[in-house]
Amino acid sequence: MINYVEKILASPDAFEQIAKLNEVLLxxxxxxxxxxxWVSPGVKAEFINGEIVLxxxxxxxxxxVTDLLSSLLSFYVRINKLxxxxxxxxxxxxxxxxxxxxxxxxxxxxxxxxxxxQMLFPAPDxxxxxLSKKTAARDRGLKKQDYAAHGIKEYWIIDxxxxxxxxxxxxGDHDTHYLPARTFYFSDYIESWVIKGxxxxxxxxxxxxANVEALQELIK
Length: 220
Description:
Elements: H1 4-9, H2 14-38, E1 45-48, E2 51-54, H3 60-79, E3 83-87, E4 91-93, E5 98-99, E6 103-107, H4 108-111, E7 120-121, E8 126-130, H5 136-140, H6 142-149, E9 154-159, E10 164-169, E11 182-185, E12 189-191, E13 199-201, H7 208-219
Parallel strand pairs: 4-7, 8-9
Antiparallel strand pairs: 1-2, 3-6, 4-5, 6-8, 9-10, 10-11, 12-13
């Protein structure tokens, strides 16, 4: 990793560079505040590295995956009193960026600190992003780096077209980079690293009948 601080300090115009950087960041902070005032429940948007990123309406295969996974995960989390699952419109406010992941899980310890009127939330324990052509590079790049840097212990990237899941985990509490992904395909089982005991067939998030069978297993 490049040490940008040392690189700037080695330059004779370090003060000018730092002043310019502070100016840019202050302007970005202002735009971020304006974004939070502007964004509404009817708009899916994120604030990423100083820019507003608007998202197109999702395709059927996208919201189907979200619905099937959230139905299993929400039930399991509620029945075991582990915390809470949120989908689509939970705004996650990290150090620089505001994200609206497709699905997040907050442990009970975190969730119990939230107020009923709260609209901005800290880093969750588990995040899911569902790929599209427009989001794939960001989901596997900047977002993955940002999620890991903020201690989000588990991150799933789901490909609804090829029907597989990439699972990324942080081993230690102070790790800031995910381990290389483990990939799970349609015929596999996947078990969450963070949500203990939550294990489902991958098929259950792509197929209605498999989803019902998985839910019945979770009920037992």
